[in-house]
Amino acid sequence: MAQLEDFAYQIRRLSLEMITCGHWGHPGGSLSLAEILAVLYFHVLRVDPQNPAWEERDRLILSKAHSSPALYASLALKGFFPIEDLYRYCQIGGIEGHTDMRRTRGIESSGGSLGMGLSIAVGLAWGLRKKEYTKTRVYCIVGDGESTSGNIWEAAMSASHYHLDNLITIMDYNKVMAKGFVWDEMAIEPVRLKWEAFGWDVIEIDGHDIQEINAAFYKARWVMPRGKPILIIAHTVKGRGIEETEFNYKWHTQHPTPEEADQMLRELSARYGKPIEGYSRLHK
After folding, report:
1. Which of 66, 77, 142, 150 is most deeply buried (CB count within 10 A of its CB)?
2. Residue 147 phi/psi, 5° resolution?
3. What residues form DSSP beta bridges with 172?
4. pTM to 2 decimals?
5. CA atoms lying within 13 Å on the CB side of residue 250
6. Domains annotated on the chain, with CATH
7. Helix 68-78 and helix 2-22: axis angle, to 10°?
8. Which pairs with CB-CB distance under 8 Å and at least 24 residues apart come from 82-86?
9. Residue 140: beta bridge partners?
10. Chain segment 57-102, per-residue pLDDT in tens
11. In angstroms, what is the C-alpha Rg of the chain?
12. Of the candidates 70, 111, 108, which has an alpha carbon nearest to the alpha carbon of residue 89?
């Protein structure tokens, strides 16, 4: 578990660094995903960086594709491409602000418009079941904000109709959208009851507790499949790890200056009990 905590720290650190380098990005929703992605990439997903097109691999669809920095950091740490590539984020010839499966190794679907990822995941899960890849799972990360859109619910209804128990969806329920709290923009509660009414099995967890996350994924993959898709509601904190960014909608879309990043990364190091390190590019 300590190693997974360390990966979560590195995902947060690299996300902040690349957003600062790229002068653009979504730090809040990237920071809230760190533990979830750490457990997925370093404990759960059946993927091979040396053979990214392996037919029977698990698939991860990031529907909330604006949180791409955390995904890119995870892929680089896993070995899909060099970590140095992260520092060309949102630069000409570098990796994109939103995911592009044609240009970046390890990306399973291109993203941009919110609400589309679950439909892609449903199609993949249905197709993989037709191929009788019984060990393969499709994971889809959706945001709480995009869950106000109708196409999410159309996909949820389809997954239930086709009994896609090889589909595991994770909601990053960090409570904050671009302009404020989710419930001020559009009420989505009672979340659990709505998904259950659509025919899904639901698990609720603390999305920053490594043990809870790991147990939920184990249960979803090996214990619960019984003809229903599975939703894991992960209660998270927008901007987790930095006091200034936590539950602060202003950091939904805002890149730190090098000086701000230096302070944030020093705070992050201290919070994780790491040697104090600031923004690596500031002092070069």
Report:
1. 142
2. -75, 0
3. 143, 234
4. 0.94
5. 4
6. 2-271 (3.40.50.970)
7. 120
8. 83/14, 86/14, 86/17, 86/18, 86/21
9. 61, 169
10. 999 999 999 999 999 999 999 999 999 999 999 888 888 878 887 7
11. 18
12. 70
